[in-house]
From TrEMBL:
<protein>
    <recommendedName>
        <fullName>T9SS C-terminal target domain-containing protein</fullName>
    </recommendedName>
</protein>
Length: 439
């Protein structure tokens, strides 16, 4: 009788805590409405009426009344402001790897509206994943690499006069590269060489004065949104069907991401690094200065889901991997988030020792783990008992369930008006004291 009472009490506490705090993306209304597009290849944006090429060396305004074509590598020079009106359409040229780079010291003011977003997309009549380059913003905030960095490798045919426009890094923590708000970036992330791809949106050494929210990157050929160094605060971000990682933080960035969404498809993946979230401090130890900051990310109210209709079959075909990967020497504080349908939910780098000191730097609190083939593991180690015991402690208020996407989310299958907020009243979650059951 005592054991049954303990179990009922544990369930009651779980439901009580869960009901009091929404998890995953939140909002009184569905903030995806109007400005997002989950079938972007079905839209005719019209033919270009203006061409953008070379370096923009004076303040410029892109108007809604025109359709612009990015021909080759387009740079906004230091000291120059590029302003983009709500509703403007900018096409990236497929043949010339069209891209837009905001140089260090320049600004972009791309402030769309929920009813009139700014669109970056491919100029092909039938748009596909990775058609064009992407949007790159370079700032002068700190990075933990030795010296300043350069993205010159993205531009194989760059002219010598533009090399200065590819540099990033500095000491301006509060620096501003402008505003990105209500912007869609579709079908970017083109392959440049054997090992080099553009991303949908790359933010390198971008400072805290930059405003970034309500950005949707869809069908990227590589990573959806990648951050190198800098001090970024982002909210209401969406990455949809990216081939690479949806949100990648690296090279000593100190960032915040909140109320954001990543939707993965097992059939839209490059097979390597295809995760919702990757938190790293470096790719190679020898390229960074350990006297500088390590990557530190605060993440709250995120929703990560796999859209597979047959998760078990997709896992058997090795099409589904972990949702989150945390590298050595990186810190992650994640809370109030949903991870649904992955294999497993989280993997920690094999060089991270499982001890209290390290786990206090990698926190998962008030999480909702749903329908995952395992929860948290160290890379190449199938025994995760220590991690399960640590993160399963009631002090973290993490909950677990096995429900499909239709039961879990309000309208995950509605491609015209999807709603990925949690369907709270349909969830059966359990976080029962294992010792109470065993007794």
């Amino acid at each position: 009788m005592k054991n049954i009472t303990q179990i009922i009490l544990a369930i009651s506490l779980t439901f009580s805590c869960f009901a009091q705090q929404e998890k995953g993306i939140v909002g009184e209304v569905n903030w995806l409405n109007n400005w997002t597009q989950f079938k972007s290849n079905k839209i005719d944006y019209g033919e270009p009426t203006q061409i953008l090429a070379g370096t923009i060396s004076e303040d410029a305004l892109l108007k809604k009344s025109e359709v612009y074509l990015l021909l080759g590598s387009v740079f906004v020079a230091p000291g120059v402001t590029l302003t983009i009106e709500p509703g403007s359409v900018i096409l990236g040229d497929y043949k010339t790897n069209g891209s837009l780079t905001i140089a260090r010291g320049a600004q972009i003011l791309a402030e769309g509206k929920s009813t009139d977003p700014i669109i970056f997309t491919s100029n092909r009549s039938i748009r596909k994943t990775g058609d064009w380059g992407g949007l790159i913003i370079l700032g002068d905030a700190p990075i933990n690499r030795y010296g300043s960095g350069s993205v010159a490798n993205f531009y194989p045919n760059i002219s010598p006069s533009d090399y200065g426009n590819t540099n990033y890094g500095g000491d301006e923590i509060l620096g501003s590269s402008g505003v990105l708000r209500y912007v869609r970036i579709e079908c970017a992330g083109k392959r440049v060489s054997q090992d080099t791809y553009f991303n949908g949106l790359l933010l390198a050494s971008v400072g805290a004065g930059t405003e970034i929210d309500h950005i949707m990157v869809s069908n990227a050929g590589e990573d959806g949104i990648e951050i190198w160094g800098g001090n970024i605060s982002m909210s209401n971000m969406v990455s949809y069907r990216s081939k690479g990682t949806d949100f990648k933080f690296n090279y000593g960035t100190t960032s915040i991401i909140s109320n954001s969404l990543a939707v993965r498809s097992p059939y839209a993946s490059n097979g390597s690094g295809d995760r919702c979230l990757e938190v790293l401090s470096y790719h190679k130890k020898e390229e960074v200065d350990f006297e500088k900051s390590k990557t530190s990310l605060d993440a709250n109210n995120l929703t990560f889901l796999n859209s597979s209709k047959d998760l078990e079959a997709a896992i058997k075909m090795n099409l589904v991997h972990e949702a989150i990967y945390v590298g050595a020497d990186a810190e992650l504080n994640m809370s109030k988030s949903v991870i649904s349908g992955f294999n497993p939910a989280v993997i920690l780098d094999e060089n991270i020792r499982v001890n209290q000191g390290n786990l206090e730097k990698i926190r998962f609190e008030e999480m909702y783990f749903n329908n995952c083939n395992g929860n948290i593991f160290v890379e190449n180690n199938s025994n995760n008992d220590d991690l399960e015991n640590w993160y399963g402690n009631r002090v973290f208020f993490n909950v677990y369930s096995k429900s499909n996407n239709t039961e879990t989310f309000i309208a995950a299958d509605n491609y015209k008006r999807p709603d990925y907020r949690l369907r709270i009243n349909k969830i059966i979650a359990s976080n029962i004291d294992r010792d109470a059951i065993d007794d």
